[in-house]
Amino acid sequence: FAYSDNYLIDVKFGVIVDVEASRAIRQAEVGAAKTMIERTEERFGLKPERLVGDTAYGAAPMLNWLVEEKGIAPHIPVFDKSKRDDGTFSRSDFRYDPTGDVYHCPGGKRLGTSGTVHEGKTLLYRASKLDCDVCPLKPQCCPKEPSRKIPRDIHEHARDIARSIAGTEGFEFSRHQRKKIEMNFAHLKRILKLGRLRLRGPQGAQDEFVLAAIAQNLRRFASLVARPPPAQALRSA
DNA sequence: ACTGCAGGTCAGCAAACCAG
DNA sequence: CTGGTTTGCTGACCTGCAGT
């Protein structure tokens, strides 16, 4: 039975600001991230401008929570499966029109939605069969179906924002910072020998993780005091 | 290397709908 | 009433990732 050690870390100075043990499954880790962000806001009045994370945090509900509820910029790769590689049009070939809430296909036709939310998360935008039947682009679009449909997550807006950040210079900088942060976890296992926990249960895991975080922060503080980082050194790293 | 899981898209069917 | 279109639904399938 495994636990994950989740840290909320200030990327500028590498200081751990919160710790949360969770089950070693993604949903739980995402939940831990939310818990830590809210707790840190409550305790210290600190709220990050951006959150750096891997694709595990790139699922639609998390992105929506960050963007819509917290106003935090998601520097997170978007979990995106909409690209097709069989030669037919991908969703990105369809243009979304937010004012009319419709997609426009490469042939210029509209795809509307009935507004029904499937599985609690997806809207389907469908083309009219009448349009598709006579469309010269049909072989590249929906060769096996009478009409094309485009799934769109109800939180697609948040995903769009995350997508627009990905690939920017700021995003690359964040990614680099994240790499450095990952060293904390290697350190945990190798130096602090936290590969295996000694205390039992979730509370035991939480306690060990907190102690480890304290130890790591003390080391960090010591090195920060000894060698205060000039701002440009942080930047060029 | 293999496997299971999680988040997601795709395809196709049948029921509902609707205009003539 | 009828035949075609739209809609809801569901299982298959895809893919990255982490645990073993």
From TrEMBL:
InterPro entries: Tnp_DDE_dom. Residues 105-221 form the Transposase DDE domain. It comes from the Bacteria. This is IS5/IS1182 family transposase. It comes from Bradyrhizobium frederickii. The lineage of its organism: Bacteria, Pseudomonadati, Pseudomonadota, Alphaproteobacteria, Hyphomicrobiales.
